[in-house]
């Protein structure tokens, strides 16, 4: 069996790593074998943070440098990530899921389907409630849109329900879920969605 | 490896343009082979970039990669390729350089296998089974031949890709202009053509580019490139 490969994209700071941390805890509790590849831009910060988190053995977390090209490494030339995923699979044949975190960039980023079977795009309320309206391939084409940081919506003057409604409207029926990685809300729904759409479990 | 009949010149040119294009997936855009460190430390500057590029082309590409690639191209079967790869492995004395060279080879093979390029599956099997490390230039030489490129073309292509890759590192780090580096490339066309001549079959790598080799051993904590 080969592991499902999923992409997690979205602007810098939207909560991609925070979501992965939450998901790792959930996957551990239901016994799903996972590994992570980070595409940090300048440092191994995300990879180190996940290793320190201790939810996965450190060898299951690989950092891939993107040569200053966060789009390229997941889309135009995904070979470095493909090779990293191959290495993980060879080393841990029991893997069911490999999560690839993008280094973070703008709304135009998409994952190559040569690299992943499925991908989600994470935005957050603090980036502006007009992000869904701005559309962009990430918001429109991802298999799942996650709108994170619902907990701080009132503090940044965002009408959260309106933002979610707009996100769903521009996506033509593709799913969008709300989360607060800080408070842990919405995480179960994301896991449920992944189990149904990706893991078939 | 597999003996593809040589392509008619027009087809060979088109194929070379495709395989040498920056859109062709090999993962090489992630590597700076020491240049990121050297630029950050001011050991290479905007002013010295043209000379640096020429020196790397001579000291590193011509003396090491060219030989490695030609041997990969010339290997008549998988066993010969594995033996050649093992020899190249011994010539790369810096551990970082050695590891990054086979990681770059693995990325190239990951794409080549997915593209079902002739010979790619057999090479990848050899690497997966641990029969060869799969060094980047060796693997590239074998794949270029299997695709139907003649040795002379394969070498010109490799030299050009090497030079473009190096200069694009400086562009992406904001230390040289996109047009500026095209002018450098144009000036290096003649030296490049001369340096890309096929080596005799008994040639062995014998290069020394201390600046970049040492820089590759001093990976920066804050870096954008693999090396
Ligand atoms: N209030 C709040 N902060 C969050 C939430 N999720 C992430 N953050 C914070 O947002 C910042 C960026 O998160 P991170 O996961 O590193 O974002 P990434 O760049 O997309 O990986 C960090 O300071 C997180 O603690 C959330 O749901 N609510
Ligand atoms: Mg992150």
Automatic annotation (TrEMBL), chain A:
InterPro entries: CobW/HypB/UreG_nucleotide-bd, P-loop_NTPase, UreG. SUPFAM superfamilies: P-loop containing nucleoside triphosphate hydrolases. It is found in: Cytoplasm. Residues 6-175 form the CobW/HypB/UreG nucleotide-binding domain. Keywords: Chaperone, Cytoplasm, GTP-binding, Nickel insertion, Nucleotide-binding. GTP binds at residues 10-17. Its main location: cytoplasm. Facilitates the functional incorporation of the urease nickel metallocenter. This process requires GTP hydrolysis, probably effectuated by UreG. NCBIfam families: ureG (TIGR00101). Belongs to the SIMIBI class G3E GTPase family. UreG subfamily. Homodimer. UreD, UreF and UreG form a complex that acts as a GTP-hydrolysis-dependent molecular chaperone, activating the urease apoprotein by helping to assemble the nickel containing metallocenter of UreC. The UreE protein probably delivers the nickel. This is Urease accessory protein UreG. The lineage of its organism: Bacteria, Pseudomonadati, Pseudomonadota, Alphaproteobacteria, Rhodobacterales. The gene is ureG.
Automatic annotation (TrEMBL), chain B:
Keywords: Chaperone, Nickel insertion. It holds the Pfam family UreF. The keyword Chaperone applies. It comes from the Bacteria. InterPro entries: UreF, UreF_sf. This is Urease accessory UreF family protein. It comes from Pseudodonghicola flavimaris. The lineage of its organism: Bacteria, Pseudomonadati, Pseudomonadota, Alphaproteobacteria, Rhodobacterales.
